[in-house]
């Protein structure tokens, strides 16, 4: 399989549940990203990982916990979410050259999350 | 703080028309400007990337221009087709290498 894949594609969870979103890229990239896309709001960057190290946490609440075990896999662990966390969560990857990352990002299809 | 605005928010045109989508950004210190396409419920597909030193990029019926000094980019779609119907997003890469997205233009091309 090529490109960036995300599972599950749809997820419904209660506020007390714990779930995880998975992202896998088959492009040989070394930078991975989590974005949140809410209704009627621009896409928001959540986390950035470069060479498996987290380099950006865009003031995301601690109920979202990312994990990057290797440069091909990225997880987003969810616990005690709120209804306002319902959104499309998109993963992306790109090539990072040294300290810069100006190449285009390739996006997965997203996980549609609904928090009841 | 970089802010990206896209106008119009929605656009409906008959098939065959040429059209222009607009994107503006507040901080001219960008590394590049990217245009993406998003189909309903799907991820983003990169269309064009214009480096800060470039003025425009072309791919098939798409042409994107960049004017850093005025903080503007346009995406020109020639001879539009129903298959072009989607949401088009522009994103500016800021000085921290973060992509800042606009809210998008929802395009409908009517047969």
Describe the structure.
The complex is a heterodimer of chains A (116) and B (111). Chain A is mostly beta strands. Chain A has strands at residues 4-7, 10-13, 18-25, 31-37, 44-50, 53-57, 64-70, 73-79, 87-94, 106-107, 111-115. In chain A, the strands form two sheets. In chain A, strands 2, 4, 5, 6, 9, 10 and 11 form a seven-stranded mixed β-sheet that branches. With 111 residues, chain B is an all-beta fold. The relative contact order of chain B is 0.34. The mean pLDDT of chain B is 94. The A-B interface holds A 4, 6, 40-45, 48, 56, 58, 88, 90, 92, 100-110, 112 and B 4, 31-32, 34, 36, 41-46, 49, 51, 89, 91, 93, 97-104.
Short description, anyone?
The complex is a heterodimer of chains A (116) and B (111). Chain A is an all-beta fold and 116 residues long. Chain A is built from no helices and eleven strands.
Number of strands of chain B: 11
Mean pLDDT of chain A: 89
**Low-pLDDT segments, ≥5 res of chain B:** none
What is the average per-residue confidence, as pLDDT of chain B, rounded to a whole number?
94
Give the overall silhouette of chain A.
globular
The secondary structure category of chain A is mainly beta
Number of strands of chain A: 11
Question: β content of chain B, as a range?
Answer: over 45%
Fraction of residues in helix of chain B: under 10%
**Biggest sheet layout of chain B:** 6 strands, mixed
Topology:
The complex is a heterodimer of chains A (116) and B (111).
Chain A lengths: L3 E4 L2 E4 L4 E8 L5 E7 L6 E7 L2 E5 L6 E7 L2 E7 L7 E8 L11 E2 L3 E5 L1
Parallel strand pairs in A: 2-11
Antiparallel strand pairs in A: 1-3, 3-8, 4-5, 4-9, 5-6, 7-8, 9-10, 9-11
Chain B lengths: L3 E4 L2 E5 L4 E7 L6 E7 L5 E8 L4 E4 L2 E6 L4 E6 L8 E8 L5 E3 L3 E6 L1
